[in-house]
Design a protein that fits this description.
mainly alpha; coiled coil; Myosin heavy chain
């Protein structure tokens, strides 16, 4: 009947719209997954850079402390020499 044909056309249209929405959602989901992977990669790289910078800061701090000790020892020697 006419009523059933109209209803079938409506359902076809709804199905077509739903399929398009599903495909868009799937594509967006894939884009988001790729973005998450990219961000995880950036985070990993940044963590490595941070760890390297932290290690360098520790090394430099130790070198600075050593240099300060040597400088103080030289000052003490100089003071002793001048005092004599």
């Amino acid at each position: 009947s006419q009523k059933m044909e109209t209803r079938m056309k409506d359902l076809d249209g709804e199905l077509s719209t739903t399929i398009k929405q599903y495909e868009e959602a799937k594509a967006n989901s894939q884009k988001m997954e790729k973005r998450v992977k990219d961000l995880e990669g950036e985070l990993s790289t940044t963590r490595k850079q941070y760890d390297e910078a932290k290690a360098n800061a520790i090394t430099m701090g130790a070198k600075l402390n050593q240099a300060e000790k040597e400088l103080q020892a030289l000052r003490n020697q100089h003071t002793d020499t001048v005092a004599q």
